[in-house]
Amino acid sequence: MKYYLFFVLCLLIQPVQSQFFFQSEVNKIQQRYKNQINNSTKHIVFTGSSSIRMWKDLPVLFQNPKIINTGFGGSKASDLLYYINELVLDFNPSKVIIYEGDNDISSGHKINFIIKNIKQIIKKIKEKNKNAQIILISAKPSIMRWDLRKKYIQLNKKYKNLALKNKNIYFADTWSVMIDSGKLKTDIFIEDGLHLNKKGYKIWERVLRPILKKRIN
Question: What's the domain count of the chain?
């Protein structure tokens, strides 16, 4: 009984510890974009884990000064949900591009738990702006986490179905274009075998560009 209570307590404490860990980074993001918080401009928010945080040239790349990058490295969907106001809603978003799920699966989170958090994130965004477009970027394959590919594929199918069943939600399938004849393209990563290099981000750009051009219904 004591072991069970200890186990439950650990499960409850772990997310709080994770979210507390990100507080300083979230504060820095808010400080960086302090002039864009709670103003009348409808921003395009790219958010999620380090694959977004490290994509430095988004406003220039997509030629849109309304783009804001609130990516925070190492995050999971539960972390984004916790900081949804500071990282998304405070910027009055017209479009939100989300990359979460990669670290979630690597950390052992169940797919249904990830989807539950993503649905809550979508709900919060829609409450702020019912017409907001939301783009879910597929969890990517990588050299470091190739052994988890089956779980990533399962998660991506859930993302795709979620997009098909809901208005103004889109699925950006970056997975398929990072694979060639069933094999992972290994020249699109930096030395850590997890994060993308310029060639890798170029692939993501080609996938996202036509989706970003879609008009808000």
Answer: 1
